[in-house]
Known about the structure:
The protein is of the alpha/beta class. It has helices at residues 32-45, 80-92, 111-116, 178-193, 245-257, 274-282, 303-316, 334-337, 345-356, 386-391, 426-429, 433-436, 443-456, 458-462, and strands spanning 12-16, 49-52, 56-57, 69-73, 96-101, 130-131, 152-155, 160-163, 198-201, 263-267, 290-292, 323-325, 362-366, 464-467, 474-481, 484-491, 497-502, 505-507, 512-517, 520-533, 540-542.
Amino acid sequence: MTGADGWWRGAVIYQVYPRSFQDDSGDGIGDLKGITRRLPHIASLGVDAVWLSPIFTSPMADMGYDVSDYTDIDPLFGTLADFDALIARAHDLGLKVIVDQVLSHSSDRHPWFVESRKDRTNPKANWYVWADCNPDGTPSNNWVSVFGGPAWEWDTRRRQYYLHNFLASQPDLNFHEPQVQAALLDTMRFWLDRGVDGFRLDTVNYYFHDRKLRSNPPEQREETLPAINPYEMQDHIYSKTQPENVAWLKRVRMLLDEYDDRCAVGEVGEGRRAVQVMAEYTKGNDRLHMAYSFDMLGPQFTADHFRSRIENFFTGAPDGWPSWSFSNHDVPRHVTRWAEHGASQDALARQAIAMLVAFEGTIGIYQGEELGLPETDILYEELTDPPGIKFWPDYKGRDGCRTPMVWDATEHGGFSAVKPWLPVKTPQLVHNVAAQEHVPGSVLNAYRAALAFRRARPELRRGRTAFVDLPEPVLAFHRTLGESRLTCVFNLSPEPQNLTVTGNASPVGPVQEAALSHGSLHLGPNGYIYLETVGHEALRVTSPKPTRPAKSKAQA
């Protein structure tokens, strides 16, 4: 099942950040044995799959996103035998396992790069992106690194620059070289043969660069001051998202289709064109199974924003498939990011998962969000994240969302018996698993209820979406599959809202601060409700306020 019937379509994927999930070895860093021991918690949520952030051999300059061996486990996390045990246990619990593949770049300690930099004639001389300097010694173009500074690093042995879109210790592989593509496909086959159910493809639009090494133009920006990170000041039309990428993704798909029911989800690191790129990379049945971007991982929390992302995707790729999430290891946790829109952190957390499970696509959950964990306030001396250190204090990096999972109220939250690699602080500790496990209405149990509802309602996993034209801050849409239809209504604010419902409808599933009575729908702060149509009369939701102009042909 590689197409429309694959397990991945409409699935719920739980992201584990291995360094911070469970430390069973006693070194303050999470490991595979710890993850395996905690898999029943993940299964109890009702998710379909686990995504493991990088676990391969690495110097850890970028916490594993700098791979020095694509076919082995870093000793920090354990062994290949530990990995096999994790896969077996996950499958026993009915969980699929997806591993993070960081293919656009390697560590500078990878044997491929060690050989490539020796000289200009060795067998791997063209495996990375090398370029001569200008007569004045400067790089050949203006490309900049995501992590700050030029994207070019001088190498004295070759007397050339090499490209690095991230750290200087993360040289970019040259995907224009067929041998590179073949070698990377072999590494993926290694893990497929070992039983993984798919891949999360890191920076999936960074694989290819412009052969002519043309300079990027300036980004269209309204700000007059320079951005915190100069990377935001370029329109990266030559350094990433090249047309050759599609053919490579087709090769990846061909590999996956050799195996039964495997999938790939791509991370699209793109700005204003992100949804279009997602659509391009997933349309048809010969590219990625699904893709996600950062469009729902930012500060925007409006009905217009969520509606436009979903509508724009399916307009660009009616047969494509998106993946949506609100938090991951790269962004501040959403209950902190969207705090101004919540009556409380817990109310916002419950609403967020109720909304996410109703979105058309596959959805992702980041470890700890099922507890309502807020972002951790990290001090400068506690930082480990390179861009956080470089751009402090205007950008505090990604450590705040990567702090350890909190299992109980003990000193380190049950994560470790020793001081962890990142601190466990009181605002996170109070949200621990044990404190919520048996509490009705806790964020943890709200997640379980929402995910169970999604699993029980095929409309939410496979149905199509039609949005209702309502004024901010109300988001409403129908999910329809065959003759079955659910109407999902959310008040994205801490202020009460009142609506009118025409037609026979009854509430179904989880509800928060919402009541339907005699055609009047009251939504309290961060209120939400799902309505099931009774009979054949079409259900309509309207507002006593003037409605905004319709943004689509979707019928209310």
